[in-house]
UniProtKB/TrEMBL annotation:
It comes from Secundilactobacillus collinoides. The chain crosses the membrane at residues 12-34, 40-59. Pfam families: DUF1056. Keywords: Membrane, Transmembrane, Transmembrane helix. InterPro entries: DUF1056. This is Prophage protein.
Length: 68
């Protein structure tokens, strides 16, 4: 019984694993940029928000193209 719950939990995490890794990488990159100085950190956050916004548009456009 416990193994079934554990397998379901891992399956749920694995479904979102790429997204979790991507967001974690952006957070670490932003933190690293702030270690170089506040202006670099602010520019990194701006770049991160730009990339996330662009990707959300790409994903949204791909979903809108579905079959008719």
């Amino acid at each position: 019984m416990i193994t079934t719950i554990f397998k379901r939990f891992l399956a749920m995490i694995w479904h979102y694993f790429d997204f979790l890794c991507f967001v974690s990488a952006l957070i670490v990159a932003d933190y690293g940029a702030f270690l170089f100085g506040k202006p670099w950190g602010v520019m990194a956050v701006a770049a991160t928000l730009f990339v996330m916004g662009w990707l959300s548009e790409v994903v949204s456009a791909d979903q809108d193209k579905g079959s008719d």
